[in-house]
From TrEMBL, chain A:
Its main location: membrane. PANTHER family: ABC TRANSPORTER PERMEASE PROTEIN, OLIGOPEPTIDE TRANSPORT SYSTEM PERMEASE PROTEIN APPC. It comes from Streptomyces lavendulae subsp. lavendulae. One of its GO terms (biological process) is transmembrane transport. This is Oligopeptide transport system permease protein OppC. Coiled coil: none annotated.
UniProtKB/TrEMBL annotation, chain B:
It comes from the Bacteria. This is Oligopeptide transport ATP-binding protein OppD. It is a peripheral membrane protein. GO terms for molecular function: ATP binding; ATP hydrolysis activity. Residues 1-20 are annotated as: Disordered. It is found in: Cell membrane. Keywords: ATP-binding, Cell membrane, Membrane, Nucleotide-binding, Transport. It comes from Streptomyces lavendulae subsp. lavendulae. One of its GO terms (cellular component) is plasma membrane. InterPro entries: AAA+_ATPase (IPR003593), ABC_Ni/Peptide_Import (IPR050388), ABC_transporter-like_ATP-bd (IPR003439), ABC_transporter-like_CS (IPR017871), Oligopep_ABC_C (IPR013563), P-loop_NTPase (IPR027417). The gene is oppD5.
TrEMBL record, chain C:
The lineage of its organism: Bacteria, Bacillati, Actinomycetota, Actinomycetes, Kitasatosporales. Pfam families: ABC_tran, oligo_HPY. Gene3D superfamilies: P-loop containing nucleotide triphosphate hydrolases. The keyword Transport applies. GO terms for molecular function: ATP binding; ATP hydrolysis activity. The keyword ATP-binding applies. The gene is oppF5. Belongs to the ABC transporter superfamily. This is Oligopeptide transport ATP-binding protein OppF. PROSITE patterns: ABC_TRANSPORTER_1, ABC_TRANSPORTER_2. NCBIfam families: oligo_HPY (TIGR01727), PRK11308.1 (NF008453).
């Protein structure tokens, strides 16, 4: 924190010296403002920053909505797209109306119902992929950074092989080989290709933190590897991982849509925005609404996650303050 | 106490101050607008330097010594920095009122700055020769070849061995002391009238410190430049300065010719600082320690900023900001160049 | 090794360092690294530390003094040599045995900003030693112990729930000292403990360390580059240059009767905050920089910057011993000095 401000040491020191000196001489008077001061830490500063950031507020509201939407879609639409007779061919390509806001697709299915229910697959792919990536990439990155030496060399070279494979191209290749896909297989495939990014961030973050004096101090006290990793390394190294995780969550949702669009992601009767876009793309001139609504839902979702990730990154980066 | 005779030992400014001083800072204020409020880094600082004279600005972190220098150099980050009040007169001209372009010209050619950390002040991807030469190419319009020749000359002048062979080296290939010499060479390149050195030797080893300080003093004498030396080290000050301004909480608390201040400080803060450094030439008992902490610039104590830490503080110190009093002898005769911003300066110096 | 002068002969050394060596290999290669050289950070250092005393170690950057601290703490494995703590060589220890020794040798770091984990409260930081060594304090007792420690180092015990960044540099250093004291150690290794602090705060911390030494009968190894501070706090002082001990003796022997040219140059270069003393003394200004520890000069390592250097200095390495010419004389100059041409030279005007 100290090195980052460019104003000169005068100002930065006011920050560090600030809190205690308000309460007078060293260790004499109890800090009257202790309650207020406690809130000031990297994370709590970030939180107060985020609360005032409209980008974060909009983004997180959208994310919240999407999560609820995918957990309990029946709250938002009375019909399920999976019940028999949900789609009536006579409704095919009907335009939006007061009863059916998004109109009907070529099969005569209600576009609104399908758009709402499709959120679930996207969110599953986003969250599961990100979770897998953070667990696998994070654990291996921690291992490589902390152990170093030959383990680090081997893991790093191994990671570079994966890193060289483009996410979408690799995903297309593997998915088309697997044939039948659903949200879970897509997640696993994307995670297989996505973990190197987190690995690299985690590794460099650990390398940065492991030579800090407080880690050396813990070693000098006789702390074991597990304690040092859990108490000292991980809490200080995790922030950048979380930020990148949030941003790439949106990217994975986009990748799922792309795979489904190509017919190698989520398969019918499963519902996915990518699939809906694919179905609508043939007749989009006659029935633009069939394309528009799922495409917009997809864009807004990806955008929402990227907005949140970006805002968190800015808030956690004291240099940008 | 016939201390008057001692004052004559003070080295006279090397060139007589005729008319306007080279640089005069008048009632300068600088504040920073942060999320937590307004940090008042500089609160009415005035000082002046003549050609050939060395002014040492002494203070701890947060005293405002570096911010003042940054304001003079026009390198304050604005925002969050702001100069609500004050004048910086360079050769009679107020730099703060100049158009940006003119200020930039003065800054490049007539005022130069030396920073503490030479490695981060030099561009790592260019050779030192190119960086030194650039000064001549930009400001003097020299050809590349002439500029390189000039660079070698400069490196010779700051006593870098084998200058000709090393002109093509990159900054990281030099040791800390040599890099600081290169910084000095860059500052000297256009023969400025004023050099501001911000902790120029703090990052260096003692044996190298002495070399660099000597070089700086020698070049200053040769070129009759004004030098503002910003430091926290009372030892470095004693070695090279003509006069001292001690800063605390964004104000000057004491002004004095260098010899005087060590003998008879007129401000309790200066006294405390002098007493709190261990002596090399004698083994002391417990050190005197100024209690408490430097002030929080967001919330500077009322009255005298030093009052919560001052052993002599009275009620008036908590209510009235002391002005910089002219310090006089016991008999009322003026001590030239001496001032103290303490309500009880008389007790401090004569008590 | 001869008994260091200036110490009562009955005192038992608590720590004995013998021919301590640390070479850091310089490697090349991506997957399989091969050694292409070594940085000789510490190259054969011996000294004793006595109970209750402070041994100052001074030297310029790159002289290996911080590596010595890490070796004494067993944070780096020594390449060769021994460190005996109460007769036991701790450089060979590991696991449980090492953990036990760690209770007795603790460390205070230079940078109060990086030596405290920013994500932990002061209570957790000072309490961590008890979690690692649960036998020292029973669980229910820990909070009280931490508050006691805060009080001992002059901080308000109510600050226990605050985070490090809410403190100033001097206060953080106090927290670091409290952590070092928690296990009630016998030895504290201080690596530049005050050099990152403001002048007015340095004195507070130095005084605190002096007070704690008396209170807890601590032995300090005090590593610093500031000769004035080292003199103030040390009973004995060792001067290091490029991985070697150049001279060692009591503080008066080193400061008032230095016999090694490097010590003399170092002392004469220190700016003294008193213009009159400054004018009275002679200054030795060394030329050049410290050579690289990866490729140190042959013979005496100081010879490249020494004004006394002769051919002998390039071929024959001077050993750290009482110089022959002073051996039979009762003079403060008779202390260990690694110079072929050791002679007294008063550099400080006293």
């Amino acid at each position: 924190m100290r090195e980052t401000t460019t104003v000169g040491d005068e100002l930065t020191d006011t920050k560090t010296a600030g809190a205690p000196s308000t309460s007078g001489t060293v260790g004499n008077t109890p800090g009257k403002k202790a309650k207020k001061e406690r809130e000031a830490s990297l994370w709590s500063d970030a939180v107060s920053d985020l609360r005032r950031n409209p980008i974060f507020l909009i983004g997180s509201a959208l994310v919240l909505l999407l999560v609820v939407l995918s957990a309990v879609p029946q709250w938002f639409t009375p019909d399920s797209p999976f019940t028999a007779g949900a789609c009536q061919l006579q409704d095919s390509l009907k335009k939006p109306s007061a009863d059916h806001w998004f109109g009907f697709d070529v099969q005569g299915c209600d576009v609104y119902t399908r758009t709402v229910w499709a959120a679930r697959n996207s969110i599953i792919v986003g969250i599961v992929t990100t979770a897998l990536v953070i667990v696998v990439g994070g654990a291996l990155g921690l291992l490589a950074g902390w152990v170093g030496g030959l383990v680090d060399s081997l893991l790093s070279r191994f990671t570079e092989i994966f890193f060289a494979i483009p996410l979408l191209l690799g995903g297309m290749l593997i998915m088309s080989g697997l044939g039948k896909g659903n949200a879970w297989t897509v997640s696993i495939v994307l995670a297989t290709l996505g973990w190197p990014q987190i690995f690299r961030i985690m590794r460099s973050s650990v390398l940065q933190n492991k030579n800090n004096d407080y880690v050396v101090a813990a070693r000098a006290l006789g702390a074991g590897t597990w304690r040092i990793t859990m108490r000292h390394i991980l809490p200080n190294a995790i922030a950048p991982v979380i930020v990148v995780g949030a941003i790439s969550l949106g990217v994975y949702i986009g990748a799922e849509a792309a795979l489904s669009y190509l017919g190698i992601g989520v398969q019918p009767p499963g519902i996915s925005w990518g699939l809906m876009v694919s179905d609508a793309s043939v007749r989009w001139l006659q029935a633009p609404h069939v394309l528009l609504f799922p495409a917009a839902a997809l864009s807004i979702t990806v955008l929402a996650f990227i907005m949140v990730g970006d805002a968190v990154r800015d808030a956690l980066d004291p240099k940008l303050r | 106490m016939t201390t008057i005779s001692k004052t004559s030992n003070v080295p006279a400014p090397r060139s007589a101050p005729e008319g306007t001083p080279l640089l005069e800072v008048r009632d300068l204020h600088v504040e920073f607008h942060t999320r937590d409020g307004v940090a008042k880094a500089v609160n009415g600082v005035s000082y002046s330097v003549n050609a050939g004279e060395t002014l040492a600005v002494l203070g701890e972190s947060g005293s405002g010594k570096s911010v003042t220098a940054q304001a003079i150099m026009g390198i304050l980050d604005m925002p969050p920095g702001k100069i609500p009040h004050g004048e910086i007169l360079f050769q009679g001209q107020d730099l703060l009122k100049l158009p940006a372009e003119d200020f930039r010209k003065i800054r490049g050619q007539k005022i130069a700055m030396i920073f503490q950390d030479a490695l981060s002040s030099l561009n790592p991807v260019h050779t030192v020769g190119a960086q030194l030469g650039e000064m001549f190419r930009v400001h003097r319009g020299m050809s590349k070849k002439d500029a390189t020749a000039k660079a070698v000359e400069l490196m010779d002048r700051v006593k870098i061995p084998a200058a000709k062979a090393r002109v093509g080296d990159y900054p990281h290939q030099f040791s800390g002391g040599m890099r600081q010499r290169i910084m000095i060479a860059m500052a000297m390149a256009l023969e400025p009238d004023l050099i501001i050195a911000d902790e120029p030797t703090t990052a260096l080893d003692v044996t190298v410190q002495a070399q660099v300080m000597d070089l700086l003093a020698e070049l200053q004498r040769e070129m009759n430049m004004g030098l503002i030396l910003i430091t926290h080290d009372l030892g470095v000050v004693a070695d090279v300065a003509d006069k001292i301004a001690v800063m605390y909480g964004g104000r000057i608390v004491e002004n004095a010719p260098v010899h005087e201040i060590y003998k008879r400080p007129a401000h309790p803060y200066t006294r405390g600082l002098l007493d709190s450094i261990p002596r090399l030439d004698q083994k002391g008992q417990e050190l005197y320690a100024i209690k408490g902490l430097p002030p929080n610039l967001l919330n500077i104590p009322s009255g005298c900023a030093f009052n919560p830490r001052c052993p002599k503080a009275q009620d008036i110190c908590r209510t009235d900001v002391p002005v910089l009093h002219q310090v006089t002898e016991r008999d009322g005769s003026e001590l030239p160049g001496r001032g103290s911003a303490c309500h009880f300066w008389k007790e401090q110096i004569h008590g | 090794m001869a008994e260091p002068t200036g110490n009562a002969p009955e005192r038992e050394p608590i720590l004995q360092v013998r021919n301590l060596v640390k070479h850091f290999p310089l490697t090349q290669g991506i997957l399989f690294k091969k050694q292409v050289g070594a940085v000789k950070a510490v190259d054969g250092i011996s000294f004793d530390l006595y109970r209750g005393e402070t041994l100052g170690i001074v030297g310029e950057s790159g002289c290996g003094k911080s590596t010595v601290a890490k070796l004494l703490m067993n944070l780096e494995r020594a390449t060769a040599g021994e460190v005996f703590y109460k007769g036991q060589d701790i450089t060979k220890l590991s696991g449980r045995a090492l953990k036990t020794v760690r209770r007795n040798i603790q460390m205070v770091f230079q940078d109060p900003y990086t030596s405290l984990n920013p994500r932990m409260t002061v209570g957790d930081i000072i309490g961590e030693p008890f979690e690692i060594h649960p036998e020292v304090a029973p669980k229910g007792d820990r909070r009280r112990k931490v508050q006691e420690l805060l009080d001992v180092v002059g901080l308000n015990p109510e600050y226990i729930n605050r985070y490090p960044h809410q403190f100033s540099g001097g206060q953080r250093q106090r927290i670091g000292i409290a952590r070092g004291l928690a296990l009630n150690p016998e030895i504290i290794i201080c690596d530049e403990p005050v050099s990152a602090l403001d002048v007015s705060v340095q004195a507070q911390v130095i005084n605190l360390m002096g007070k704690l030494q008396d209170e807890f009968d601590l032995s300090y190894v005090f590593i610093a580059h500031d000769l004035s501070i080292v003199r103030h706090i040390s009973d004995r002082v060792g001067v290091m240059y490029l991985g070697k001990m150049a001279e060692i003796g009591s503080d008066a022997e080193i400061y008032e009767h230095p016999t090694h040219p490097y010590t003399q140059a170092l002392l004469s270069a220190v700016p003294v905050p008193d213009p009159e003393v400054r004018e009275a003394r002679e200054r030795i200004i060394l030329t050049g920089d410290v050579p690289s520890p990866a490729n140190p000069p042959s013979g005496c390592r100081f010879r490249t910057r020494c004004w006394k250097a002769e051919e002998k200095c390039a071929t024959e390495e001077p050993l750290l011993a009482i110089p022959t010419r002073f051996k039979s004389v009762n003079t403060p100059a008779a202390h260990e000095s690694a110079c072929h041409f050791a002679e007294e030279k008063a550099v400080l005007a006293v």
